[in-house]
Amino acid sequence: MAGLPSATFGSDTMTDQPAIRRGLEELADGYDAFILDLWGVLHDGLRAYPEAVEALYALKARGKQLLLLSNAPRRTEDLARQMANLGLPEDSYHHLMSSGQDAYVHLRDRPCTWYRELGRRMLHIGPPHDANMREGLDVSVVSDVQFAEFVLNTGPALHATEIGALEPVLRQAADRELPMICANPDIRVMRGDSVELCAGALAKRYQELGGEVRYHGKPYQGIYDSCFQLLGDPDPKRTLAVGDTLHTDIEGANRVGIDSAFVPGGINAGDLGIRMGELPETDRLTALFAREGQSPTHVLPAFRW
């Protein structure tokens, strides 16, 4: 697979073709800082990809700054423990940021008028393992939407593949015009070979019902501001984002003006008819980029050296 033809997205013609790379060895010299997605790039939700761990250490050995950026609705301390259990030790990277951490800090510090006007009675929609998103906050957690002033959305129950069970709650909250904080903009995520819904799917439905949503995480500017601060304000031209999701990882990189590398064997593997480490047919990739309206700088078969 030598390269991709140019494609048209909306009214703009994409003249730069994403470059097909065999591995990070072909890219490392061109970048100083790397912003790396987790699910579908470094692990599959059950275990780390061995080649990915090797690549992290190879980049560190060459003096690259590595920041792992996840749309997980969890605080970073909890996320670090989870990743270590999956086989991604803390010494394999430098920094860690999550959409959950960003949402938590905003709820804790109330840095803007929107947050200061939320009120203190919070309805939390999310699985039990997201409970630490409530710890240390000056809020009262309510279980009845009728008593809530706002909604924290960290996603449906574990292994959920549809949102029907939550539809009544979402309708009631929308009818009461409760603002929603979405701590994970992802629509779906891989867990092993299966696909599960995320908080972004609930938020999308909430907006369809007329509800107001404040998003934290990729592809929104705020999370990248935090990342660049952690990385010591690197040159954007020498910063690379790597991800497997076009509407979060790649769109986020495009929004903030940094290069990106797309891993097609992650969340899109089933649609593209491949497994991790493989590259799809050129026309399938081109069609995917056209459908999503986003194009990366590079394409990698996997996060490997």
UniProtKB/TrEMBL annotation:
GO terms for cellular component: cytoplasm. It comes from the Bacteria. InterPro entries: HAD-like_sf (IPR036412), HAD-SF_hydro_IIA (IPR006357), HAD-SF_hydro_IIA_hyp3 (IPR006356), HAD_sf (IPR023214). Keywords: Hydrolase. GO terms for molecular function: phosphatase activity. SUPFAM superfamilies: HAD-like. The keyword Nucleotide-binding does not apply. The keyword Ribosomal protein does not apply. This is TIGR01459 family HAD-type hydrolase.
